[in-house]
């Protein structure tokens, strides 16, 4: 691995909430064009790490470098400039409810570019096509399904053709079929645009479908980092516990579960 291939480099990252240490020395490199999935149980530190990658939190110790720039050393202007190369799709979609879908998608263009209105509309329309939402631009977010909101959020995240894409729980709250279609979209976007992509998820099926490499967090530490096969073969008991939780979920008899919910058995 040579330096030029690394898009994101985290070194010795330590983070606290008050006196509580929640990241305990994270070392992580994400290579150009790879999809890195950050996985881990609830409270393991995934969101905190993501917030550091986005420059929303400052490290107590260590550093975060995006595209070769140490976030702690950037002036506000340099940070703004770097943000042009970063797309973020938040868990909830984070669309503005008072703006149409197309207006939402144009927001980063309005913030970061001098393009005229017509050009922005054309770009928004193209991005809506990319995420299979062609023709939905005039709708309001409240008129979209959960899966469509995630697609719209992805369209907004990629509207500036970013070098880095961050997705926070892209499949949260979706049924398995819709969730799988979002996974496919993330793969397709990376293949088409070559972005370095970081996905935070607790959804194991999704993680194993999209990841080039997986980083498993537990109690603020990386307990496994590697390819899907390497993670599956991990001898770490906590990693295996996380993977086995999935088998229990998968083997759940959904019909029996539904009958139980409906009081039929
Ligand atoms: N604003 C906060 N103030 C204090 N403690 C916090 C705050 N946010 C998170 N924590 C704590 O930090 C630890 C890591 O939380 P974090 O949200 O990063 O985990 P997570 O892996 O993203 O969890 P989840 O999957 O439930 O979102 C947890 O113990 C959490 O309780």
Secondary structure topology:
Elements: E1 6-17, E2 20-31, E3 35-40, H1 46-53, E4 61-66, E5 69-70, H2 76-83, E6 86-89, H3 101-112, H4 117-130, H5 146-157, E7 164-168, H6 176-193, E8 196-201, H7 204-210, E9 213-218, E10 221-226, H8 228-232, H9 237-250, H10 254-261
Parallel strand pairs: 3-8, 3-9, 6-7, 7-8
Antiparallel strand pairs: 1-2, 1-4, 4-5, 9-10
The chain binds adenosine-5'-triphosphate (ATP).
Adenosine-5'-triphosphate binds next to helix 1.
Account of the protein in words:
One of its GO terms (molecular function) is ATP hydrolysis activity. By secondary structure, the protein is an alpha/beta fold. The protein has a domain of 146 residues: 3-Layer(aba) Sandwich (Rossmann fold). The protein has ten helices and ten strands. The strands form two sheets. It has a six-stranded mixed β-sheet with strand order 6-7-8-3-9-10, with helices on both faces. Strands 2-1-4-5 form a four-stranded antiparallel β-sheet, covered by helices on one side. α3 packs parallel to α5 and α5 packs parallel to α6. The longest helix is centred in the C-terminal third of the chain and has 18 residues. The protein is globular. The protein starts with 5 loop residues before the first strand and ends with a helix. Adenosine-5'-triphosphate (ATP) binds next to α1.
Identify the notable features of this structure and list them briefly.
265 residues; alpha/beta; Rossmann fold; 6-stranded mixed beta sheet; 4-stranded antiparallel beta sheet; 10 helices; 25% strand; globular; binds adenosine-5'-triphosphate; ATP-binding; AAA+_ATPase; ATP binding
